[in-house]
Amino acid sequence: MHYDPVDFVRSSIRSIPDWPKPGVMFRDITPVLQDPRCFRALIDIFVYRYMRTRLDLVAGVDARGFILGSVIAYELNLGFVPIRKKGKLPYQTVGEDYDLEYGQASVEIHTDAVKPGQRVLLVDDLIATGGTLLAASRLLHRLGANVVEATAIIDLPELGGSKLVRDSGLPVFSLFEF
């Protein structure tokens, strides 16, 4: 029997209809994280993709981007930078607002999180409207970083986020489209 790690991971993503509201099909990655073989397969897919890419840091977006990004950073022997929701970081920060379906939100990063010229991989679990990734990318650019690619487990292309991120000039990689 042929083992395909991508198929293995995909088959572990749980679909939950009508959550968080009617008409939404939620893609739940927690079963992927709970199974040690599946979690390792997921991380290995990303590590193999980036192991020959010149990177200095991995930045993960609050909150599930922390799970994925920190492990990828560890496996690639890189530092990890959290990009958090507003008001969660203790040191001096810069922030970036972005639009939500109903209102606005903001993400922040420490002012000393990256040095000018550093090459950064930006990680989140899912790309929906792209607002969070675009705001995170703008923050990194404001600090002088070169964001090499935005990556996620899941892309929901019908919501247009990955196209918006690509249109901003940032390459995008996702394992799955739903």
What are the salient characteristics of this protein?
two-stranded antiparallel ribbon, 6 helices, alpha/beta
Q: Compute the gyration radius: what is it?
A: 16 Å
- Specify the oligomeric state: single chain
- Looking at the structure, what is the overall shape? globular
Query: How is the main sheet built?
Result: 7 strands, mixed
The CA-CA distance between the termini, in Å, is 26 Å
What is the number of E strands? 9
**Strand ordering within the main sheet:** 5-6-4-3-7-8-9
Helix content: 25-40%
Average of the residue pLDDT scores? 96
How many helical elements? 6
Secondary-structure-based class equals alpha/beta
The run of helices and strands is: HEEHHEHEEEEHEHE
Low-confidence stretches at least 5 residues in length (pLDDT < 50)? none
DSSP strand content? 25-35%
Describe, in short, the structure shown.
By secondary structure, the chain is α/β, with parallel strands linked by helices. The chain is built from six helices and nine strands; from the N terminus they run αββααβαββββαβαβ.
How would you describe what is shown here?
The protein starts with a helix and ends with a strand. The chain has 178 residues and is α/β, with parallel strands linked by helices. It has 6 helices and 9 strands. Helix 6 links the parallel strand 8 and strand 9 (172-177). The mean pLDDT is 96. Helix 3 crosses helix 4 (64-75). The chain has helices at 5-12, 30-34, 36-50, 64-75, 131-142, 161-167; strands at 14-17, 25-28, 57-61, 79-85, 93-100, 103-110, 119-127, 146-155, 172-177. The chain has a 7-stranded mixed sheet, sandwiched between helices. A two-stranded antiparallel ribbon has the order 1-2.
